[in-house]
Design a protein that fits this description.
The protein is α/β, with parallel strands linked by helices. The chain has helices at 3-13, 28-34, 47-61, 73-87, 114-118, 136-148, 161-165, 190-202, 219-230, 251-257, 293-303, 315-324, 333-345, 364-368, 372-375, 389-397, 415-425, 437-443, 446-453, 468-477, 493-499, 513-525, and strands at 18-21, 40-43, 65-69, 92-98, 127-129, 155-160, 206-210, 234-236, 260-264, 285-290, 307-312, 382-386, 402-405, 431-436, 458-463, 503-507, 530-535.
């Protein structure tokens, strides 16, 4: 047995069936150990793409996603994507090859303090380097458990190449079974659940705000069930746009109308404007429930006397505890529930007739609305939105049973890797990835990965030939005369996609869309990804505020 074999045995025991990876010198022993192991190796074109795929896999399945990259520059390439996973509270394990321990400090090839570099992007205590070949398997088990303990998040393990190649005489550790393998949780006790429910029961307009964890795996369904059990609106906030998240319609009016807000694993951060009192009704009171002491302390500093109660407990377990102790709600809740639902669903009626003002361009709404039929065609379809302004339009216009966005990190670029992983996670369900032209440039080569893996999806590029989010900032803050550094070319990304083996078409008139969609669906039926390069006019992202809000602000 080698250290690499112990690693693969540990992956098998943990039920990890797929590893997203880019090869390199330091991890070739792992590749050798994976051969014939039954653990699928999805090899990609950039290390960041491997982490993005692991992130998407983790968010959609609720199980840790595993990325494997080489050391030094390979590890460095992966770190940017690790930040996106961290802010999305996604259980990702980054395995990185590492310079040999025996050569550290001597100027080893690609020597780097990798765990130190990864630590700020990982859970506390969640980045380290294996120190003994015989413990590599237990290191992996510890890392997978830590990724899912408390608040989900990334963990990193560096694997020195000499330990991976070292020959051992010990047998693999026995399987870890039953409760011993489950990550520890901080339970919400029944009496605590009763106290929270009693507080909510006294409110006239209660609201539950959940953090990004509520978008991972089975948690969207669990939160929907909590909504039904409590008859209290449960809203997952996972967008960098915060209260201006276009997927949530007029969320600002909902916050302004609530008199009791349960922060269920929701950080009091920039997405809530750090708890600014002007967002909420003057009488609004808060209860915060979080797995981490530091988040409870932050909530106390931000909310002050408005924070009635702070409880340390695992949010996922708390959903089950609150449902188990749920009591019947006052009959007066119906109007509040309807008002919240209407506010979140509201979209400007004028969108139905939206048209571009430029020739050979489409308004974003024109480009997006026809996609809803494909997303509605399967109960487990996946919608992916990425990019600045066009990505926000997509989130406002489209919806699906499963959704992936760039998350609180606000980084762009993961759409194509996300789509590959989403299709692998759900091979029979359609995947629609909507992105801007700037975003597509980050990882367009992963279309090659999609072709090789037979992971077909539909990529829709909104091409306005600029970095539009930044361009809109320049227009607002400095004026058109000082808008610089944001222009791109109206590039034929459809031809680039075709060169990578995908189906590609360019659209510059709305009348072309129906036939183009049919050809794209036919290509996907043959196992090919399809790319529609849609020429759009630049539009600022929508900020949805109803005229004469039904939920009046204080």
């Amino acid at each position: 047995m080698r250290g690499a074999d112990l690693l693969v045995h540990a992956l098998q025991r943990a039920g990890v069936g797929r590893v997203f990876s880019l090869s390199g010198n330091h991890v070739m022993a792992v590749y050798d150990a994976l051969a014939g192991s039954g653990v699928e190796l999805v090899h990609v074109r950039h290390e960041a793409a491997a982490v993005h795929m692991a992130d998407a896999w983790a968010r959609l399945t609720g199980r840790p996603g595993v990325a494997l990259v080489t050391g030094g520059p390979g590890h460095a390439n992966a770190l940017g994507a690790l930040y996106t996973a961290a802010m999305a509270e996604s259980p990702v394990l980054l395995l990185s090859g590492h310079a040999p321990r025996a050569q550290l400090g001597l100027g080893a090839f690609q020597e780097m303090r990798q765990a130190d570099a990864a630590a700020p992007l990982c859970k506390p205590g969640g980045a380290w380097t294996s120190e003994h070949a015989g413990r590599i398997g237990s290191d992996l088990e510890r890392a997978l458990a830590l990724a899912r303990a408390g608040r989900n998040g990334p963990v990193h393990l560096s694997l020195p190449s000499d330990l991976l190649e070292e020959r051992l005489t010990v047998a693999p550790a026995p399987p870890v079974c039953g409760e011993a393998s489950a990550p520890p949780v901080l339970p919400l006790a029944p009496n605590q659940a009763d106290e929270v429910l009693a507080w909510l029961g006294k409110a006239q307009r209660p609201l539950v705000l959940a953090g990004p964890w509520a978008a991972v795996g089975a948690m969207p369904a669990a939160c929907a069930a909590l909504h039904e059990s409590l008859q209290v609106p449960v809203i997952c906030m996972e967008s960098p746009r915060g209260i201006s998240d276009p997927a949530h319609g007029d969320l600002g009016a909902v916050l302004a109308g609530a008199d009791a807000v349960l922060l269920l694993g929701k950080r009091v951060d920039f997405t809530l404007r750090f708890g600014n009192a002007s967002l909420f009704a003057s009488e609004a009171q808060f209860v915060q429930l979080d797995a981490e002491t530091r988040e409870l302390e932050r909530g106390h500093r931000a909310l002050g006397p408005r924070l009635r109660m702070a409880l340390q407990a695992d949010p996922q377990q708390a959903v089950r505890a609150l449902r188990a102790e749920a009591h019947a709600l006052p009959a007066t809740r119906g109007p509040w529930l309807r008002e919240v639902a209407q506010a979140l669903a509201w979209r400007p009626p004028a969108w139905a007739a939206a048209r571009a003002g430029q020739p050979q361009r489409l308004h974003p709404v024109q480009a997006l609305q026809p996609l809803q039929a494909l997303l509605d065609s399967h109960p487990r379809s996946t919608f992916i939105a990425d990019g600045g302004e066009f990505g926000q339009w997509a989130q406002a216009v489209l919806h699906a049973p499963r959704r992936l966005i760039n998350g609180v990190a606000g980084a762009i670029g993961p759409a194509v890797p996300f789509a590959v992983a989403a299709r692998l996670a759900e091979p029979d369900a359609p995947v629609v990835a909507v992105m801007g032209d700037g975003t597509f440039g980050f990882h367009m080569a992963e279309l090659d990965t999609a072709v090789r893996c037979r992971a077909p999806f539909l990529a829709v590029i909104g091409n306005d030939a600029r970095w539009n989010a930044e361009h809109q900032i320049q227009l607002r803050e400095y004026g058109a005369a000082r808008a610089i550094g944001c222009d791109l070319l109206p590039t034929r990304y459809d031809l680039a996609a075709a060169a990578l083996g995908a189906h590609g078409e360019c659209i510059d008139d709305a009348s072309q869309l129906p036939a183009a969609f049919e050809r794209a669906r036919a290509a996907m039926a043959r196992g090919l990804p399809a790319c529609l390069n849609v020429m759009i006019e630049s539009q600022p992202a929508p900020v949805l505020r109803r005229p004469g809000d039904a939920l009046a602000r204080p």
